Amino acid sequence: MQIKSITRDPYLYIFLIFALYPFYPFLGKFISLGSELLLFFIFTLSFNLCLGYTALPSFGHGALYGMGTFGAALTFLHLTPGMGIECALIIGGIAGMLGAAAVGWVIRNKKGIYFAMLTVAFSQVLFGLCWRWDEVTGGESGLTGIARSSFLGMDISGSIPYYYLCFGFFAACAIIIRVIAHSSFGMTLQSIRQNPIRATYLGYNTGFYKFLVFTLSGFFAGLAGALYCFLAGAAFADIFDWTKSGDVVIATLLGGGTASFYGPIVGSLIFLICKELISAFWEHWLLAYGLFFVLIILICPRGLMGLCDRKEQ
To answer: DSSP readout, 73-109?
Structure first.
């Protein structure tokens, strides 16, 4: 019975597919795309803890990703130059968590559009600050010269070793996020999403729970951003722009994050494949992607996973 339940676990097939990614005939040539996919999976899964499980429309979530990127870049360049990336990744995750905690505490009792607009404002403030603060962030030129060397003594300078490092972080984060989502804490988040007033009457401090989930989400987003810093070898201010937050929102909704735990992964796959592959052949790929998104939302407001008419939460 236990073996049967394991073989029916979607994670088993997701992990298997991406463990073999470098060996696929065509896609295996795009190792950097595979690494970016894995990091975007972490980002969207963390974001879905807010949107799908708690109904928090964090439309400035890209700022937390960006804080992780710059936190890791600054740590690597100024605190641990020439060393492994372990410390930089930890600082990147903590930077995202602290940014989320600071903002989350202020807006924890806000709802709907007010919550969304305040997160967007936070993102744009950081974008402006990063763009202008040349001495620290590099301004328009950003921070460059970030070369990965080792992780826990292992050489990760090559694209394939770094891909498997990203895969390891994705597998660990995905399992942890699912445990959180399916725990009693996750059940409480869903009750707040469905009826916050009733949850308050039952004795739950809904504002504090929103603050906690936003902070947790910030850590995973920051970690994904820190890993992206070493994938790109640089950190630029445009990562704080509202479009980065828009990408994660659209990918999550398209995949069906409000209908299924695995929706963000499906949406991320479609988004990044359109962005990286279709854009190579057609510069107006966003037009096709936008039309596809509108069509899916019209047919199934709960996203692609909503077509399965099942709820994994």
So the answer is: HHIIIIISTTS-SHHHHHHHHHHHHHHHHHHHHHHTT
